[in-house]
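Kindly inspect this one:
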Amino acid sequence: MLAIWNSAWTLLLFASLFWAGNSVVGRGVAGLVPPIALAFWRWTGAFFITLAFACPHLRRDWPTLLRAWPPMLALSATGIALFNTLQYIGLNSTTALNALLLNSVAPLLILLFAFVLFRERPSWRQSLGIVISLLGVAAIAARGSLDMLVHFRFNEGHVWIIVAMAIYAAYAVLLRLRPTVHPLSFLAAAMGVGVCMILPAYMWEIAEGRTISGVAGAYLGMAYTAVFPSVVSYLCFNRAVELIGAARAGQSVHLIPLFGSALAVLFLGERFHLYHAAGIALIAAGIALATVKAIPLRPALAGRRSTLAGE
């Protein structure tokens, strides 16, 4: 377990897989569970699950969390209250596959926020890697057809998803401001504050007459969102950002449509085509280019270049 906890890309693989499932489930329960209700009960369930393990750490870390209330409010609003709520709203008017594909704008937005907020400039490898991964996503989106890609149209759901991804990008960049506390303490506190932020909107949704259907599948879907994309994925992603930074960890978002396509094959009976393979290869190449460190120059060659630069 310690090896996994210290392996950023193993953690990001799990986070991306469960987040891909979140979009599939969110679309699957649309019409059964209103979007704000799904966000509220997802995070309420996740909060109590996390709290069961976090209590000893929270007692120790509570003073530090209180002193860091401005970044905690910002992280709770972006990562908990807004991102997933807007995503579920979008999934009511677009397909899970479209939502998964639009997730791939997040790495671009992460680099933008990192530059605007912290003047962090992307390397040429990161920029080129993002372009290559986006080409892979486009290949899957277009199903290997340029005509389908050209005629792709945005609807209201797409706009909600893109806004949600912009908020997610802000969360990923702002994670560097999180207080130095145990991961479970941070997660429990962020979830608790986030649930309080969602509550007024949930009360409004109930007042509008939008309630949960009493179907077993709706509650199973809610249970999945409370455990895997909430507790497990957030622990994994937060730890990965701590290990390799937001810009590099953000490249993993391209894995979400990749896993989403596989889940569609497994659970929705969709067929795997050649364009899926091409898209997956491009996504993997882009991630590798953006995240694998360049091989250092040999000492003799490095010295020669330094001498030339001095001339």
Residues 2-310 form one domain.
